[in-house]
Amino acid sequence: MISPAERKDHPISMRLPEADVAMIDRAAGLRGRSRTDFVREAAVRAAEEVVMEQALIRMSSEGFSQFMDVLARPVAPVPEMVRDLKRPAPWEPGYTSKG
Questions:
Q1: How confident is the model at residue 17 (pLDDT cuts 50, 70, 90)?
Q2: Cβ neighbours of residue 38 closer than 8 Å, sequence gap 6 or more
Q3: How far apart are alpha carbons 65 and 59 in whole angstroms?
Q4: 15 to 24, 43, 95, 99: CA distances (angstroms)
Q5: Is the pTM of this model over 0.85?
Q6: pLDDT tens, 40-79?
Q7: How far apart are CA 85 and CA 87, in angstroms?
């Protein structure tokens, strides 16, 4: 039997309004997951996003100068993007779904 000191899982308890639980259960069901798995995955994903937003990028002053030089270069048009941006939008006259 595992002693409490050896246990790797840590319980988290929270109080939620019934509407929130219903929404979580619905979404978990659509994913084929349990409520616990769904909430754990969503919480970990949100935590990773926050941590990644705070990530510090370190580089040498030479590397930073090279990085800034690349950003300062004139841009070159991407033919596919130019073509797509010239197409009429779906709500504009002349739109066709064929491109």
A1: very high
A2: 24, 27, 28, 31
A3: 10
A4: 13, 15, 50, 51
A5: no
A6: 999 999 999 999 999 888 999 999 999 999 999 999 999 9
A7: 5
